[in-house]
Predict the 3D structure of the following.
Amino acid sequence: MPGNLNFHNPETGQQCLSRPALEGKLSLVKVTFLGSGTSHGVPVIGCKCPVCTSEDPRDSRMRASLYIQGEGGERVVIDTGPEFRLQALAAGIERLDAVLLTHAHADHIHGMDDLRVLTREKPLPLYANADTIREMRERFSYVFQETQRGGGKPRIAPEAIEAPFVIGNLRFSPVPVKHGVLDILGWRITEILENAGPRDALAVHTVVYLTDTSAIPESSWQLIRNADTLIIGAIRVQPHETHFSFQQAMETAERAGGRRMYITHISHDLNHRKIEEICRKFREDRGLKETAMGPAWDGLELSIPFP
Ligand SMILES: [Zn+2]
Ligand SMILES: [Zn+2]
Ligand SMILES: [Zn+2]
């Protein structure tokens, strides 16, 4: 599925499939939205609203999660929500090098047991901040206790991290953000290119994933600016105590100045088309030519950099 069908050429306003190719080496990272919905998912159980009964497949949203595939074979998932098994099947995930967590809310971790089949050969590294790791050890205590052999359990190697680390040719940097009063992590993923000078110099090879964010500390902005692709959680039009609104997500993207921004962690308040219109109108009103914006949908695949 082309990743930018919904974007518009900033010069002509026409829908476009691609931008002019960048010069130089184009090595690609692929990211797939395994889910783009808020905590209850869409449709919501028992809800008969127009969005929950919509026939547009983009209005069905599983819990938010991102799958990252590097050209060197790197395979990483951010968050393992309750639908992880279905998402892994849909995306054809056969193995993983690591799982990254943003925080320990149920909609981001309750599929962790299904990692089991991916950890048969060796334990799977799990990276998160110290609070999240502590919470995981409590919530999934059976995973970390010695029990009888047999009976399936995922083999997880949790590691609390504060600094960037490398898997293959990808560098993963934690991005501290606020989720209400909680300190959680966004993730910046940059491809390490040979002869590229400072490792993080080529922002065009960078994707930043910030879900469940309500505020960005000043010190985290340097990790967000000018990314090729910025993904931001925003649940609805109205303000919310622990999540960005659409407006706040778009203002973040405007300030960050990257090439495109996708909204994720979306509720059933508005359908996909209406959120697209909101994004289009914001860009028009602000005269924003450079940064494309739109809502993500489940199964959407993007190439980094933006082709
Ligand atoms: Zn969430
Ligand atoms: Zn509904
Ligand atoms: Zn949350």
